[in-house]
Design brief:
Largest sheet: 7 strands, mixed
Order of helices and strands: HEEEEEEEEHHHHHHEEEHHEHEHEEH
Number of helices: 12
Strand content: 25-35%
Mean pLDDT: 89
Oligomer: single chain
Number of strands: 15
Strand order of the largest sheet: 10-9-13-12-11-14-15
Radius of gyration: 24 Å
Length: 345
Amino acid sequence: MKKILLSLALMVAAVSNMQAAVGKLKVKMDCKPVGDSIVALYMNNAGMQETKTFTGKKGKFDFELELPDVVQLYLVEPGALRNQSTAMVYRLPGVPGEEAVLTAEDRTRYDINGSKFYAQFHEADVVAESAQKEGKDATDAIYGFIKAHPDYEASAYALTMMRDPAKMKEAATLLAPEVRDGRFKPIYQGLLDQIEERMKAEKEAAKKQAAGIDAPDFTLNDLNGKPLSLSSLRGKHVILDFWGSWCGWCIKGIPQMKEYYQKYKGKFEILGIDCNDSDQKWRDAVKKYELPWLHVYNPKGSKVLADYAIQGFPTKIIVGPDGKIVKTIVGEDPAFYTLLDELFK
């Protein structure tokens, strides 16, 4: 079945500080969409990516995987590592001392069952899937599952399948003490900590990026190596474009940005602020994509990103002629261009 799990990055962060307790996980697979090889991917206790390849026949595999502790495990077709969107990715908790049995008839869903833990996990997974099919919030369904099964180890893991941090905390108190403080605690507690930190950062960003706030001034070097300050552009609308050559959505949005720059030429200025690039990659990207607006390089150690509490890329902040923030838009959002039309038509 399709899993209701949070991102790999969050899960990796949640398990990176776990104590070592090496053990073997047995894995059996009968997944018809898969060929003759499967790659196991997880993070070890040092935060390094581990990959191991196993061979089978027509989607049938039987192997053992030595794990440092409970980890977030991904069993993927080799094509997934080459960014092939059709490749299968099977996500599951990797638990030493257990046996996981995966089955799949096609590429739309898969089931996980097996030894005691995985049999429990299968129950939780079915509950979440049923809620999804009925158009309900899986968080409430999982909460009910945990309440009904406080002594299941799978209930501790099921906390990571919930979307509401407050509900997660509340559900954790329902667990039996030996489960709540057991081997899955580093996973759910680490994830909770990550979510709370993110929410705190988003709250801070909302304050710093709010309409009517004075846009913090800064001075960075332009393409000619000369200092360019935001305050020097006072008196006109300025769009601060926080971007990077590595950011796919930033690059995807360039054609429409160029279109609107020409459409309202002279009515506003764009100041591209490069983030997380080397100086040469920044210059190469500006040249490659023929970006006609102003650009500055934001080096490591600069406090510009912190001053504006940038949380994602691209972020576009419209600053009015008076130096105050008009609007902040995160991501490549059509609402940004609608706003430009409203401001400059």
